[in-house]
Write a structure and sequence with these properties.
By secondary structure, the protein is mainly β.
Length: 122
């Protein structure tokens, strides 16, 4: 089992920045690819970004590419999502997930956190 806890969400004005963190415990963190997804009210959970254990494979969703940066610190069992130039449409609950590969599909991830709310005001 892997337990994931997200933090760092909050309310920010459009154009601002936030950094989300996801702390993992349980099985060896470095064995897993990590992903970030988000879900806005009434919408499907959407892929945001993913990174493999060695950090040499990184994937971004089209809507966040160039604004968000994913990173991980295997020594701290933590993955980060730096979000810059935030827009109101980025408002959602953000979830981190652990899986075997840095995939864009939700079904490829085995463990999920509870989520952290990000609200971007216009």
């Amino acid at each position: 089992q892997v337990q994931l806890v997200e933090s760092g969400g909050g309310l920010v004005q459009a154009g601002g920045s936030l950094r989300l963190s996801c702390a993992a415990s349980g099985r060896t963190f470095s064995n897993y690819a990590m992903g970030w997804f988000r879900q806005a009210p009434g919408k499907e959970r959407e892929f945001v970004s993913a990174i493999n254990w060695s950090r040499n494979t990184i994937v971004y969703g089209a809507s966040v590419k160039g604004r968000f940066t994913i990173s991980r610190d295997n020594a701290k069992n933590t993955v980060y999502l730096q979000m810059n130039s935030l827009k109101p449409e980025d408002t959602a609950v953000y979830y981190c997930a652990a899986g075997g590969q840095p995939a864009t599909q939700k079904a490829r991830y085995d463990y999920w956190g509870q989520g952290t709310q990000v609200t971007v005001s216009s």
